[in-house]
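Loading example: each entry is read as three labelled lines plus one structure line.
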Amino acid sequence: MKFTLNIWRQNGPHERGRFITYEAQDVSPGMSFLEMLDGVNQRLLGNGEEPVAFEQDCREGICGSCSLVINGIPHGPDQGITTCQLYMRRFSDGAFITIEPWRAKAFPILKDLVVDRSALDRIMQAGGYISVNTGGAVDGNVILIGKDQAETAMDAASCIGCGACVAACKNASAMLFVAAKVSHLATLPQGRPERARRVSAMLEAMDREGFGSCGNQYECEAVCPKNISTRFIANLNHEYLRAGIVESSLPSEPESPHAESS
Amino acid sequence: MTRLDSKIPSGPLESKWDRHRFSEKLVSPNNKRKLSVIVVGTGLAGASAASTLGQLGYHVECFCFHDSPRRAHSIAAQGGINAAKNYQDDGDSVGRLFYDTIKGGDFRSREANVYRLAQVSTQIIDQCVALGIPFAREYGGQLANRSFGGVQVSRTFYCRGQTGQQLLLGAYSALCWQIERGQVTMHPRTELLDLILVDGQARGIVSRDLVTGRISAHTAHAVVLATGGYSNVYYLSTNANGCNVTATYRAWKHGAAFANPCFTQIHPTAIPPGGAHQAKLTLMSESLRNDGRLWVPKVSSDHRLPGDIPPIDRDYFLERRYPRFGNLAPRDIASRAVKVVCDEGRGVGPGGQGVYLDFSEVIEQQGLEVVRERYGNLFDMYHRITGEDAYQVPMRIYPAPHYTMGGLWVDYNLMSTVPGLFVIGEANFADHGANRLGASSLMQGLADGYFILPYTIGHYLATAKLLSIPDDHAEAREAIQRVETRVNRLLTVKGRRTAAMFHRELGTLLWNHCGMSRNEGGLTSALQSIPKLREEFWRDVMVPGSGSAFNQELEYAGRVADYLEFAELLCHDALHRHESCGAHFREEYQTEDGEPRRDDGRFAYVAAWQYRDGAVPVLHKEPLAFEFVPPTMRSYQ
Amino acid sequence: MGLAMTGLGLVVFVVFHMLGNLQLFEGPHALNGYAAFLRDMPIVLWAVRIGLLSMAALHIGLALQLSMRNRRARPVEYTIHRYRQASIASRTMAISGMVLLLFVGFHLLHLTAGVIDPGFADRRDPAGYRDVYGKVVHAFQNPFMVVLYLAGQLGLGLHLSHAIASSVQTMGFEHAALNRLLKAFGPVIGLIVVLGNVAIVLAVFFGIVR
């Protein structure tokens, strides 16, 4: 098979980018999309040119590194997979394929198709955890969690943090990402004590990073390689409303444990 | 001269760890604040260690080459994590997990370490539940278990097929908390390229910022390597493309002994390579062997389609050779049996690299729906990759390098032979002996990171004499100089061949001569070819671009350069071990039925290799005593 | 959140507005009586009017603010961008909103303030009420007005079909079994409102009501 690739090249975050056209030759239908790009890069290297930079690692759809917008759709034309799981037999021979990076203010381009997604890490650092120290945890079976509840938490927790939701969203919003994490922890009893603080802190961090807002178009869900449902966004909104109500009814300054009542 | 002192506490096995913890010196809280630790790698071991050390009050500098700590390859582990909880009341116990692990490792691991691992395993589950990991549950709300990897009890905890992902995200979230608290400073997209030793103690690292190319020194009071395994030395493996040996290999060159490098596990059920373009191999869950039957045509000249070959012309080779275990024979045994039939020219698919894994019988007996329900996602994955429908035609599978039991030698405290250099997770040689059981790698990574290292490193920090050193210490400057020279050397070769070409050639060489089965002739010839390939590399490698910018090809070439040296060490170890044990199969040492022959009289030791500049590495032996589990022959016939 | 709340407030208004209008079918007496009933409580009427206007202003302001922020969130657009499942309505909220704004402005000037076509502004019916009925019938006998009003209703329908379900999502209503119902809720309400209004326009135009 043969393809014509229109690939975004950009030297650095502050440089101007442009599309350059490459030919991909001797492609077999059994090649993955990334292996096809490997081939293009090997040829570029053979000519002493700089290869196209793109992010990849596990190549089995779980690490969340790969991040290409292929013909206008993050992770390409198939649903429920990452770019590394896309195979060339999916394209017709001779096709013209446009490859772009994730585009969002919060994801500055580092080089060619590689973007900086550390904004997602910073959202996690703002509150995407349960504050428990190592050691001293109670026996795992002391906390009973219904099967359905555990499954729902797992549905949300399967997010791989690739950022396709942001890439697909008209507003470059990270709501599905935040919703997945917030819902995962809010569904489980272990995550409840901190739920109000968590949702507020994570949404604040999201705004700070320059992501847009949710327009409820559900494009994020359609490109999510793990099929994470936008119902979790409703859940996130619910958590946020709840946090507003619960937090405002709490005393703003908890009494010091050492304060003596006289 | 390296001296191997395993520092195993004396006394009864059951109380070694408890007594050891009590006798360890502690660091007072206000002193912890003044101490810093470098943790390299953010997989299960690294992330759990960094977060726990941060909680304890140390300042942690944490490094990973990924864009985010969450992407470390622990994320890809599917099956589950073992723990001796005995929730199923099916006879499990710490003792039994200990016994299974020692025996599964073919009697090449330390009893004291393995016992501690089994003890700690139960705490891991509790900790992970507290962190919010959504383990599978029963309807009543209790934790669910399954049996995994051919053991007789159900002790494996799991999160669908994404256990590694969930455990890593748990450790990552704990890490996020410590980053937020300022206890951990995270350096993503930063690669370790050298170690800094001051007065013989590990005091820092030299790293390269993968975005800007800046090479800089970071000093601390101790260094922890959690940098994973080296299966990628084979070019094609189930590891992520980024996994590499650089950190551990650089440490080896600074005097840390490397133990049992030849113990490399080959997983039997990967999708066969499709051609020269293949970048990595995809693992399929071992559970497929519960219902699928492995076979090849009886004669090599049989080129009929699988459906046209009548049963009488098929060789169900695992059932034939191991009637008791059949298609469920352990990983190392199944892999080797596949290799045998493929070497006989009876392999199927492109290049004869593959055997059939046939579900037609179970589909006929139990119906398509049952099979779809059990394995639907795996069949889909297979279909996506190969374009074949495994409901109609048998799957093809082929073994792939997967996990490396070998690694840097560590004592009971997880410290290498370089004082102040600790090694955890797959990067150390640790607890799996010559073969790892399923669902044990996650257990070991978290045991090291959450529960063992945080204790043992404290003793070191409390007792070692550690003057504070600046980042521009003479040793640091010298180390930076070394790294810069090497980077420049890679960039100035300006040859004609890409790093990938060398890597692929090395991988093929190793796979053929130091793969699933090894012999003296092959290993000797590999030891002759590798230096030649390495010379060619440094003469003819092509690395474009500059060192002071984002340059993926430069990163890769540096890693390949280290593989080209490390491969030699791997072959030396394989050559010297005149026995077959676990994953290490020497053709000269087998029984008449082709079963491995272990030699406990001569080889019941850990082979720890010491680096010598320009010469064959020196072998040190740590004898293994089996006080509690007398060695027996593994037999699955 | 603010956008959703003001939006839902306006939805409540259009529903009642449509129901009130349907009294046209009960004849002049009912409709004119209803109008007089409203005008008999000037304080309530003006309070509601001011409330509605400020809600609309807030709604528009928030929408502008949000869309500006969203535009900033993606400074460089994709060369090719394909939608997977976003509805036409959701992709045209800005346009349908603008159409709606223009229409409402026209509608207020026309039937409320009587600036457009002022002939009917103060005419009384036999019972002494203001002849709203006659004004409406007069207006929709004019094909030009019919086209304008139908276009406005198209804008309203489009806007509502995304807006209601979207607001429900934003307000965080989520229920495993009721979810599909909640999601279907929006387009259905939108459709009912539009059908009710369109029925009035067409009934007059085709002479069913005269």
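Helices of chain C lie at 2-21, 28-39, 42-73, 88-91, 93-112, 132-140, 143-170, 179-205.
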